[in-house]
Amino acid sequence: MKSVLSAIAVTAFAVTAHSAEKVTYNDHVLPIFRNSCLNCHNPDKKKAGLDLSTYQSALQGSENGKILESGNAGASMLFKCIKQTEDPKMPPKGDKLSDKDIAVIENWITGQLLETASGKGVAASNNNVQVAVVSLERPAGPPPMPGELPLEPIVQSPRKNALVALAASPWAPLVAVGGQKQIVLYNTQTLEPLGVLPFPEGFPDVIRFSRNGQVLLTGGGQGGKSGKVVLWDIKTGDRIATVGNEFDQVLSADLSADQQFVALGGPSKLVKIYSTKDGKLIQSIKKHTDWVTAIAYSPDGKLLASADRNGGIQIWEGDTGKEFNSLPGHKVGVTALAFMTGVVASASEDGTVKLWDVKEAKEIKSWKAHDGGVSWVEFTPDGRLVTCGRDKTAKIFDQTGKELGKTEAFADIALRATVSGDRVIAGDWTGDIRVCSLDGKRIGELSATPPAITDQLTAAQKALADAKAAAAPLQQQFAVAEQQTKADGGGKEAMPPAATDANKLTELSKALESQTAEVAKLREARASQKEGTPEYNDANNKVQAKKAEIATTQASIDATKGAPTAPAAPQPSGAQEGLAKAKATLDAANAQIENATAAVDKWTRAQAFMTVHSARATLAEKQAAYADLVEAAKSALDLAEQVRGSIAAMSKALEEAPKQLQEKQAALTKAQQTLDPLSKAVVAGETALAEKEKQTKEATEAFDKANAIVAEQTKKLEQDNAEIANRRKAREGKPAGSPEYETANKNVQDYKTVISQTEAVLAAAKAKVEERKPQTEAPRAEIVKMKDALEKNRADVKAATVVVTTAEKAFADAKKDIDATTQKLAKLRKDAPGIVTTAKAAKAKADKDAALAAKELETLKAQTEQVRAEFDKRWQPLPTVAAK
Predict the structure, then answer these.
(1) What is the pTM of this model?
(2) Eight-state DSSP code of residue 65
(3) Quick check: helix, strand or coil at residue 428?
(4) What gap in Å lies between CA 83 and CA 96, rounded to an integer?
(5) DSSP letter at 267?
(6) What is the pLDDT of residues 179-188, one digit of tens each?
(7) Within 10 Å of residue 9's Cβ, how many Cβ atoms?
(8) CA 579, CA 810: separation in Å to the nearest integer?
(9) What is the biggest distance separating any 2 CA atoms in the chain, rounded to whole angstroms?
(10) Quick check: helix, strand or coil at residue 416?
């Protein structure tokens, strides 16, 4: 353990270091992690789900949630673990991090987790998300619609991107379209843009509205790099929460009905649930075997569904993340999920849409929705389903699988589709976004990359000029026709009504046919131009003008067909017909002028509003800067106070240092006194063991030699017995008393003596074996005991050696700390006056800057209010948009 003296010295070091530079991940923290942490917490091992090898992964945290709380080291799990005040203590093996390293990490967290010196700190936790009342009914009152939001696109691109993010408000005529680094909001009835929301995180992959329509969720990011989920307030366009810190794009996400949680998924194969209030990771669920491609909360938020590229669908408890059940059925990737009470709809690359009973985990209905695969499915508020897929169409179904409507085919795979009131909005891989009626008739188009306001205004101004130029000769034609009618006396020719109507219908039908052919050609000309360019806008204006003529002609046909047939009613003369035709043409031209004038006003207003928006943004920046200056003024003298405190603490610590050093010397002496007898006991034990092993070896050799003699004599006895048996056999058959018998008998009797000698030698050898046996067995047991005792003594010596080594290190560190602290105290005393002077100057400057900033802020507030007032004076408030 480091001494208190060391800790104080490190604090003083941190104080002086703080005045010199910012503590950052790249320059200060990562080297500490490399030395002490990355063996376990790297992308390969990732123990406890924690990777500290990159800034983003450190911010992401572990499988148990965030480990860093910006600005609050005491609340950060990482700091608690390295301080070893909470489990798991880190590092789990080896020495604790030095006080210096701990101080660096503490300052990094307190300094808002900077990645680089020039980077921005991590913002405080979310606090703008309001808890919503969970209801399955339409909310009371008018549905939320955007207020006046900026219409300037964040990104302008001549090329369209595949539409992979699209959603319609459940209650308002509002659709959100995802584009590169932006979300564009449109009114689904007028098809007019209502606002652009910036998404600097990258490409949106999923957009969803909250159940009450008040909040817009967008998830996405940059492939293989980062992923986030952002929440906006629909009315104000304010970003109210940001959750997740993924290392790849967020592919699927949803907001719980009470708006307290966001669930997200992607290439990590994990389902993660975050709190919207503080951005904390609540659950990380590891179940899916492939990318998580779809996520949806139930309408009441009690259940959560998720699906993957392998076709797996899981249902979880919404509040605990516990597994509820699994829905088998799809063998290939699931592309989308939609939830209504008790029922989940799933779309798959197998081409089917399936409805599931969530509680029973049973399939209710399945049908082939799109050949080749289904890209999307969602429920409309009234329970129908809208889908799209690889057959390049979007469709409407009821829950029996009956097709209720279908769009015309897109040029490529239809990727997303949604329903807003009586309209279907869908888009394909080429970025073409269409608005159609429920029976599939095209109404108009939307864009994820609309032109800049200046381009829109220029096009509208040109269209207005063209419309006025076109109307001038028509006005003259109308005046001429009017004069001809007056000259004709205003008389009317009598003609049978039926004949007159028939002739008029024939003329009008021919005109309509001609106009329809002409508008088709104009559309082809428009399709050859890039959207947003002046050429495209000019061509589009011509299309719209011709469409107005068609509408006028069609209205005339309808009026003629529905006119009552009075007998022999006087019919208009040729002059009157010419006048009527001239008036209709002029009315159409005037309508074009009116529309173009409205467009000019709209984009002029939008351009003017950007001035208001920019003023507000500048004011917000100045307010933040002012808050920083106020805080700097408050904390300017903190450094001087810390220096004073450090000097006092270091001085006191140096006074107590000799006593601490003496205690460490005493501890070292005691440890050595404990070690010495243990070491001697080990040496004595090793000597005694060696002697006992030597004696045992000699006894064992004598024992083995005696055993060898026994074996040898036993074998000889067997041979002798065999020999005497042969001699007895030779004696048999000899006449008793004969010389032959006597000779054979003598041979037998003589060999008995040999056998007796062998038996005597064998008996003596066996006696020797019995005598040596205890001399070998007993020592072996003693050797085992001696070895056990020796091992224990060795272990004691090892432990005592560690104690001695630790005591030696503690003593050396204490001496080193005294020397270092003495030097640092001298330097700090030398630097203190300058630090105090600098702090006072900083305080004075911060007070002065804050005062100036306050005045500037007041001026800027007044200017912003004036800009807003001038805008409000020039422009009437936008009309309120009716609900569906």
Answers:
(1) 0.63
(2) B
(3) strand
(4) 8
(5) T
(6) 999 999 999 9
(7) 28
(8) 111
(9) 194
(10) strand
